[in-house]
Amino acid sequence: MRHRERLNRIRPGRGSAPEPAPFPRAARILGTIIAPTTLVTALLFYFGARHANWFCRHFGVHYTTLDFSPQDYLIRSSDGLFVPMAALAVTGLVLLWGFRLLRRTLRPPAWDATLRVLTPVTVGLGVVLAGAGLANIADPALLYDYPGLPGLGLAAGFALFMVAQWLHRERTHQRRRAAFAALESVCTFVLISVGLFWAVNDYSAAIGELRGAQYEQALPTMPDAVVLSSEPLGIAAPGITETAYQSADGKSRFRYDGLVLVLESGNKLFLLPKTWTPETGGAIVLARTDSIELEFNLPAPGR
User: Fold this and answer.
1) Is the pLDDT of residue 10 over 80?
2) Which of 64, 46, 38, 33 has the alpha carbon at shortest distance from 202?
3) Nearest C-alpha neighbor of 158 from the set 120, 130, 183
4) Cys staple from 275: which of 61, 108, 239, 251, with CB 3.0 to 4.6 Å?
5) What is the DSSP code (8-state) at residue 24?
6) Are the CB atoms for 19 and 175 separated by under 8 Å?
7) Given pLDDT bands bounded at 50, 70 and 90, which one contains residue 8?
8) What ranges in the chain are assigned the alpha helix state H?
9) Which of the four pLDDT bands, split at 50, 70 and 90, describes residue 73?
10) CA gap 113, 120 in Å, rounded
11) What is the mean pLDDT of residues 133-151?
12) 157-to-52, 75, 120, 170, 202 alpha-carbon distances in Å
């Protein structure tokens, strides 16, 4: 009898078994889905394509004409990913550290009162954020001037619902049925993932357009790109001069001044006039051949 009572004290009964927290379960689901390298690479490729699309669109060029390589898209994806990932990680750490600090410093009655207040506040904030995301689905123009906010609101809102439910169970010591808990976790994970994808998608597009505007501002200070060709290229735009001359071997060549090289990809040269503006300028895309050479000169001081 004593041996049996000792085992009962060591091993809790079926009704008092602690419920696994939803966050480790969600983390396991997340790891199972995104573990394949192909999925991560596909997401990076997609966000890089969004960045390239809106960067080139700022200058009136369709990005597919430049034949970007997969490496180009992967490199561009980092510009639209590191800020959202860093912000998400910092926010998560601050919330977790704050929760741990409160739980360690507050006495049980004060902790119970805090949970009683935090639960409805978390639910209310989740309703506002998720409602903003869902409303933008119904009316995409509602938050058009705030890229990333609708998706972020959708993800944060449903994440707060999960947190509120966990806070309620922490205070009341209630449990959920395993089948219901798994289905609820999967649905919440899908909604959070969709919201995060939506937010990063909008942010990648916005940051690509921003980089185009920044490049436009920096055009006067960029190195001059001089195009040398054995054949006339017919480049005619404000600020560009064409000069015909004889090379050292006596062959006719043509020189084009007043250009800036934006990028080179897939044997394509993306050039802009140094005086380019959206109203007066035109972008130039040339096929890189053996008859075309490039020279670069630093801009004159004071320009």
Assistant:
1) no
2) 46
3) 130
4) 239
5) H
6) yes
7) very low
8) 2-10, 22-34, 37-57, 70-105, 108-138, 149-172, 178-218
9) very high
10) 12
11) 83
12) 30, 31, 13, 20, 18
How would you classify the pairing of strands 292-297 and 224-229?
A: antiparallel
Note whether 209 and 58 are within 8 A (CB): yes
Q: Exposed (0-12), middle (13-18) or buried (19+): which is 205, by Cβ within 10 Å? A: buried
pTM tops 0.90, yes or no: no
- Tens digit of each residue's pLDDT (9 = 90 or more) over 167-202: 888 777 776 666 567 777 788 888 888 888 988 999
Give the tokens for residue 24: 């480790």
Q: What integer is the mean pLDDT of 31-37?
A: 58
Query: Assign residue 148 a region: left if phi > 0, alpha if psi is -120 to 50, beta otherwise?
Result: left
Q: Assign residue 146 a region: left if phi > 0, alpha if psi is -120 to 50, beta otherwise?
A: beta
